[in-house]
Specification:
The chain is α+β, with helices and mostly antiparallel strands. It is 26% helix and 35% strand. The strands form three sheets. Strands 10-9-6-5-11 form a five-stranded antiparallel beta sheet. The protein has a four-stranded antiparallel beta sheet with strand order 1-2-3-4, with no helix packed on it. The chain has a two-stranded antiparallel sheet with strand order 7-8. The radius of gyration is 20 Å and the shape is globular. 20% of the residues are buried.
Length: 145
Amino acid sequence: MRFKRVFKFVFISLYFYCLLAACSGLSDYEVELPGNFSIVSTSQHQVTISPKIGEGSWDSAVVPAKVVEVGWDKNFILAKQVDLVDDPENPNNYEIPDKDTSHYWIIDIGTGVITGPLDEQNFADKKSELSISKDIKLKNVDDIR
């Protein structure tokens, strides 16, 4: 009888441990991009683009949070980013995306030059000026990870 009780306790404990462990890192991921850049997510809204400096380590973000869309070819990485603002419903300094803002960024892989933040019109103008292929389409980050 005691064995069954101990077994049941251990089983339930392991079940809840696995459940909690699986949920804790769901927002953490990396998507490798050309030119040694990566999309790096450390939480649901802290999604940035950073240069990779080693296995599992990155330099400071060159495109700040929250990166929501990305597209690239062998020459350029394009990104759409929205600002984060304090969540009025959460008093713990939790930030959420500001759906009223969006900025665009261009990373020249060959030179390492980062251009941004740009509004939509300046982004279109800069893409034309740099002869960036129209084939590069911005895709939702959640769809490419």
